[in-house]
Amino acid sequence: MLTKTLDISTSPHIQRGMSTEVIMRNVVYAIMPMVLFSIYAFGTAAFWVIFTALVSCLLTEYVLCKLSGKESSLSDWSAVITGLLLGLTLPPIFPLWMTFCGGVIAIALGKFVFGGLGMNVFNPALVGRAVLQAAFPVAITTWQEAFRPDRFTTIPTSLKAMPFMSPVFDGVSGATPLSAFKFDHITAPAAELAFGQVSGSAGETCAILIILGGLYLYARRMINWRIPVSILGTVFLFSGALYLLDATNYPSPVFMLLSGGLMLGAFFMATDMVGSPLNPKAIWVYGAFIGIMVVVVRIWGGLPEGVMYAILLANALAPQLDRIFKNRVYGTVKRKS
Amino acid sequence: MQLLNLLFNRHHDTFQHGIHPPEHKEDTRDMAIRQFSFAPVVVLPLVQHIGAPSQAVVREGQEVSRGQLLATAGGYVSVPVHAPVSGTIRKIANVPSASGKMVPGIFLEAFPFSGQEVMEGTPVDLDTASPEEILKGVQDAGIVGLGGAAFPTHVKLKVPDDKHCEVLLLNGVECEPFLTTDHRVMLEQAEDIYMGVRYLLKATGAKRAIIGIEANKQNAADHLNAHLPKDLPLEVKVVPVKYPQGSEKMLITSTLGLEVPSGGLPIDVGVVVVNVATTAEIGRLLPHGQGIQERVVTITGPGVKKKGNYLIPIGTPLRYVLEEVGVEDNISEVYLGGPMMGMAVSNLDISITKGTSGILVFTDKEVKKQQKVYPCIKCGACVEACPMFLNPSQLGILAKNEAYQEMADHHNLMDCFECGSCSYECPSHIPLVQQFRIAKSMVRKRKSKAHAN
Question: Can you tell me which residues bind [4Fe-4S] cluster 2 (chain B) (predicted)?
């Protein structure tokens, strides 16, 4: 006689087998080539910046979980992503103590005050970077050219600046392609941009690797393809239209796409699931908004680059976009409000 | 335009969204239907359908023959129960049901060594019967939806006076993983299906019939096409494999391109949907005036030794069934129906009823215990899965705050038909559909309370 005691549960009894932790870990995999390229292009300095950002994010997450009596959320890997992305958006010779502050702010102000993973309004890494940009405008716009011969042997003095002291930048030049365009009206060739031969933030320079990482995540169904497509499409169309009107004053759309933080932002920052809308129509608007903002800031704004602010603003709009651009529910003529 | 459709995931031969769980049908789909042995005692619950309980018309100690009426319909939305086996009524008492409730039931002890001939009743003649007589015949045969819902079929077939039925849609989709019941019925009972279609066309007044079959059952579609009588206006439509293709609304969209209005029924767009096994049963029983005594059940899953498609007498105790087919030592959960919408049973003393389309046994390897639930990361997987275009992510947050009325008023909660696609996809393992079930029942309860006051 069958006497086994059975368990019960409610349907569905099968699941796809995906987990939040696996998604986050795969985003980290997709970021890793950019980290390695960054170290290859900018040397030990880039390593220290990214490493410091990572450690400060993890440490902040750990301490805040402890203090608030929550179960540690380090295992969901989201703090790792924040740390790596923050590091990748900073200049490779950014003073380490400032980097550390950025990590603390990213996790504490960007994520924890909202209630942790899933509750944050803004992309935490960009919150950290935005505060750094406001606090240290000089340091965050001082760059080093890529592939310096001594990049593995010397550590830039600016990196080792003592906390609350102004860093000394030794003999650095290396304007980014965007600032070269903005202030000197020089556009870098597309091939140099695509393969990361230019200066810039640690992880934003090699467009090809960023696209490959994005394609990997798309293939694994871990980013919404509409976001990069709508952002890049809008930037291309908008700046393309301007270029057609006046090719001498406006940069080519290809330059606009490949330069600065656009690729990194479109594939890895704007796609942050928590900060982006859910409904397809809302996502198209969200992406188009980012694209327009980027072009506007770059061409008419005071700053050479506008990706960060564009994404932060779009993050703030996302819940409202979801509310306005709802899916039409099956069997309804117009959505009920 | 083609590219645009591709880009925006618009296909005209199927509904949008949905999921692709592994099918697991290969174990049983090629196994012919086999007669299951008679249990020494069958237990017939008088609530095997949605609606009023049936009323017993036999007494303890009475001898009955197979096919004899044991209980009459307890109202319009109710059906009778017939004896699945010749034997003696041992007891009329409360019996456990799959839902956990005790319901009235009949214990019938089979005669050993009986020939088990089936009693004939008054035939419903296809040529002379009126639509009403056919509906009466369907009710008298004790027929309910065999796909799992177990809603009395004659109620579903009754076209309201102000509505008109254009199309009779047969549901041969069987989108639940593991189940192959309807697949075998289509391969082995084509003649019964054709006969059933004739009755149903007459009963509903529809001019044509369509049968929707998922592409993983191409051989069934070919078989039904090959033997199709020339005069029968039945069209076989193969639809893509996608869950929940077998939901009435989704199948209507996939085959006819129509959307059933929110809160409405298929008849609102001129369609009546009937499961294919139900149709076969009508085609087999009505010409003989018999009642339903047995049904095809797929018994499968990693925990089952002798998997297969069996013709099992209604009322056979689940424990007897599992002992006959043999189960592994480490079985953990037993489901009636498929893995997506089937119900886990807590008690092996329940019976196979008219609505049991499958018995699925999982061992402790398949049953995930204590999965970590992460916060919702707004990944949108549920939004892209929901066939009703709801926003399960948002509904989940509201459900957590018990904002049930808001879910119903502003987020179309009541359009959810609990297919479970959202929970299947959710990487944070949030029990979405489970919460929606609670929310829906709370909203219904409040509504009926408000009516009462």
Answer: 386, 416, 419, 422
Tell me how far apart the alpha carbons of residues A140 and A143 are, in angstroms, rounded to a whole number: 8
Whether residues A7 and B340 touch (CB distance < 8 A) is answered with no
C-alpha A277/C-alpha B165 separation (Å) is 41
Instruction: Say what the pLDDT of residue A196 is.
Output: 80
Handedness of CA B182, B184, B185, B191 (dihedral sign): positive
* Residues forming a β-bridge with B82: B69
- What is the reported pLDDT for B372? 86
Q: What is the pLDDT of residues B379-404, one digit of tens each?
A: 999 999 999 999 999 999 999 999 99
The CATH 3.40.50.11540 domain(s) of chain B lie at: 12-27+129-288
A314: closest CA among A190, A252, A227?
Answer: A227
Q: Could you give the C-alpha distances from B395 to A75, A331, A334, B390, B440, in angstroms and in order?
A: 27, 18, 19, 8, 11
C-beta atoms of A118 and B423 within 8 A? no
Given this model, what pLDDT does residue A155 score?
Answer: 80
- Give kind and range of the element (H or E) at residue A60: helix A44-67
Q: Quick one: average pLDDT of A233-251?
A: 93
Question: Nearest CA to B382 among B397, B365, B372, B367?
Answer: B397
As a whole number of angstroms, the distance between CA B376 and CA B421 comes to 16
Region B330-343: what's the mean pLDDT? 94
Instruction: Please check whether residue A9 touches B, CB under 8 A.
Output: yes
Tell me whether A274 touches chain B (CB under 8 Å). yes
DSSP string, B262-300: TT--GGGGTEEEEEHHHHHHHHHHGGGT----EEEEEEE
* φ, ψ dihedrals at B91, nearest 5°: -160, 145
Q: What is the pLDDT averaged over residues A326-335?
A: 81
Q: Is A279 on the interface with B (CB under 8 A)?
A: yes
Chain B residues with CB under 8 Å of A329 CB are 262, 388-390, 412, 415
Question: Residue B199 corresponds to which amino acid?
Answer: Y
Burial track B103-118 (b if 16+ CB lie within 10 A, e otherwise): bbbbbbbbbeeeebeb
Residue of A nearest to B344 (CA): A8
At residue B383's C-alpha, the angle toward residues B378 and B386, to 5°, is: 150
Contacts of B341 in chain A (CB under 8 A): 11-12
Residue B323 and residue A224: Cβ atoms within 8 Å?
no
SS3 state of residue A113: helix
**Per residue in B31-71, pLDDT tens?**
999 999 999 999 999 999 999 999 999 999 999 999 999 99
Question: d(Cα A98, Cα A166) in Å, to the nearest integer?
Answer: 11
Distance between CA atoms of residues B129 and A2, nearest Å:
49
B9, B340, B424: best mutation site toward chain A, by most A Cβ within 10 Å?
Answer: B424
pLDDT in tens, A244-292: 999 888 889 999 999 889 999 999 999 999 999 999 999 999 999 999 9
Beta carbons of B379 and A19 less than 8 Å apart: no
Task: Name all domains of chain A by residue range, CATH numbers in brackets.
Answer: 20-324 (1.10.3430)
- Hey, how many other C-beta atoms are within 10 angstroms of the C-beta on B11? 12
pLDDT for the residue numbered A171: 55
- pLDDT single digits (tens) B164-205: 999 999 999 999 999 999 999 999 999 999 999 999 999 999
Q: Which of A1, A5, A14 to mutate to test the interface with B (most CBs of B within 10 A)?
A: A14
Chain CA centroid to CA A263, Å: 9
CB-CB neighbors (< 8 A) of B387 in chain A: 330
Cβ atoms B273, B169 nearer than 8 A: yes
CATH of domain B12-27+129-288: 3.40.50.11540
> What is the structure's pLDDT at B270?
95
Q: Which residues pair with B239 in a beta bridge?
A: B214
